[in-house]
Amino acid sequence: MTAMEELTLLAGLALLLNAHLGSAYQLTCYFTNWAQYPGLGHFKPDDIDPCLCTHLIYAFAGMRNNEITTIEWDDVAFYQAFNGLKNKNSQLKILLAIGGWNFGTVLCGRACFTAMVFTPENHQTFIASVIKFLHQYEFDGLDFEWEYAGSCGSPPQDKHLFTVLLQEMREAFEQEAKQITKPRLMITAAVAAGVSNIQSDYEIPHLAQYLDYIHVMTYDLHGSWEGYTGENSPLYKYPTDMGSNADLNVDYIMNYGKDNGALAEKLIVGFPTYGDTFILSDSSNTGIGVPTSGAGPAGPYTRQAGFWAYYEICTFLKNGTTEVWDAPQAVPYAYQGNEWVGYDDVNFSVKAQWLKENNFGGAMVWAIDLDDFTDTFCNGKFPLVNTLKKALGLQRAGCPAPAQPVEPITPPRSGSGSGSSSSGGRSGGSGFCARKANCLYPVANNKNAFWRCLNGVTYQQNFEAGLIFDTSCDCCNWG
C-alpha cells in the first residue's frame, strides 16, 4: 500500500468514525461489579444510559488456574444485562477488565498474573480461555489492570513478560478474527500514573504497539497517606510542588507517555468521579499542602474513609461548605470545619479542552457508578459524564437522534422484475418492525433514510446531509 493510499484509508476511517459518533474522541466508562452493594447508592447495569459513553468496561474478572473467571456471585447475570445495552446503542463497545487494585484479595491475586506470564504454556492457556470467555458472554475485548507489572510484589521480569503476553494475545486475536470472519477482539490496559511506576512496570513503546488504547489512571495523585492536603487529579502542578511532586499532575503524566513512545491518539486520559478527603490538623489552615491528621470520614454510601463519590460530595457542598477554585491546578477543593476534599466537578470541561488541544484519544471515567446517576444529590443525571460527553462533541455517542414512533408502515416494494418501485402503503397494523430484531434496516429506494426497530415499534429516521445507509455495516456512512 502506498503512502497516499494509507492516507486515503486513514481519512476514510476518520470520516466513518465521525459519521458514527460525531467526534474523533472516545468516552470510556468503567462499571464496578461491587457498586450493587452500597445501600441507597447501589448501581446495576440497568442504571446505565447506553447513549452516554462510546465504550463501557466491566470491572473486574479474576483468574484461577491461569484461566479467566468471574468474581461476584451474579457476574454472569450482570454480563447479560451489561451487553444488553447494545440493543439500544448498536455502536457501543463493551469490554471486560481483569485485575484491579484489589486483585490481591480475591482468588490468587497478583500472584496469578506473575504465574501466568511465567511460561509460554501458561500464556496459551490464558489466551484460549479469554477468547472463549469473551465470546461466550458477548464482550468486544479485554482490558488489563495489572497493578503493578514489575513492582509492588511483582518481580522485575514481569515488566517484559507482560509485553510478551500482549504481543501473543494480539496475534491470537488477529488470527481468530480471520478464522471466524468477525471483528478482532480489542485489547486495552489501564496503567498506573506515577512516573516511577510507569518506568518500573511498562515498556511503553511496545504496549502502545499491541494495545488498542492505554487508559492512564490520572487520579489518586494525592491522598490522606501523605499527611497534607492535595488534589485528587490536578491538571497542572501547584506552584510550590518540588521534586517528584512536580510530576504528579495530569499534564506531566500524559505528556510523559506521549514523549516516551505512545501515540497520543492511543492515550486515554483518566477522569475521576470521586474525591479524596482529609481531616485538617488545624481547621483555620485550609489551603493546598497544609497538615492533615488522617483520612476524612467514610461516605454514607461508599463507606470508605478518605473517599467520597461525587454524589456524596454534592451533599457535602450543600451544607454551608466553602468551595475554592484551585486556579493553578484547574480543579476545585472544598472544606467545612476540619473536613477537606479535593475533587473534580462540571469544570471537567477545562480538562476536556486541554485533552483536545493535546490530541489525546479521549477520556476514561472511573467510575460511572460514582457520578450522580439518580439526579438526587447534584444537578442533573450523570452531571460529570454528561459534561465530558458534551465537551468532547459526543452528544449522540453512537445513538441515533431521538425519533417519534410512526404509524406502522411497510417499505416500498420493487415491481416484479421491472426495477420500478411503488409508493409505500400502510401495513394494516403489523408494521415493518413486527417480529424483527432491534436493529437498523435500509428503506428501499431511499438511501438517506432508515428503519429503526426497537422492541417491535417502527421508527423512520433520516440521516444528516451527506450520509446514507451502508448495508455492509448496517450503519450510516458517507455517500
Q: Quote the CATH topology of the largest domain.
A: TIM Barrel
Whole-number total of structural domains: 2
Helix count? 11
The CATH class of the largest domain: Alpha Beta
Could you please describe the fold and organization of this structure?
The protein has helices at 3-21, 75-83, 110-117, 120-136, 158-180, 195-201, 204-210, 250-259, 310-317, 348-357, 383-391; strands spanning 26-32, 55-64, 67-69, 93-99, 141-145, 186-191, 213-216, 267-272, 274-280, 292-295, 307-309, 322-326, 331-336, 339-342, 362-366, 439-443, 446-454, 457-462, 467-470, 475-478. The chain is built from 11 helices and 20 strands. It has 2 domains: 22-278 and 344-391, TIM Barrel, CATH 3.20.20.80; 408-479, Antimicrobial Protein, Tachycitin, Chain A (Beta Complex), CATH 2.170.140. An 8-stranded parallel β-barrel has the order 1-2-4-5-6-7-8-15, surrounded by 7 helices. The two termini are 24 Å apart. The longest helix is centred in the middle third of the chain and has 23 residues, at 158-180. By secondary structure, the chain is α/β, with parallel strands linked by helices. The chain is globular and about 70 Å long. Mean pLDDT is 84; it is low at 1-22, 402-430 and 472-478.
Characteristics of this structure?
six-stranded antiparallel β-sheet; TIM Barrel; alpha/beta; 2 domains; about 25% strand; Antimicrobial Protein, Tachycitin, Chain A; about 475 residues; globular
Explain briefly what this protein structure is.
The chain is an alpha/beta fold and 479 residues long. The chain contains eleven helices and 20 strands. A hairpin with a 2-residue loop joins strand 17 and strand 18.
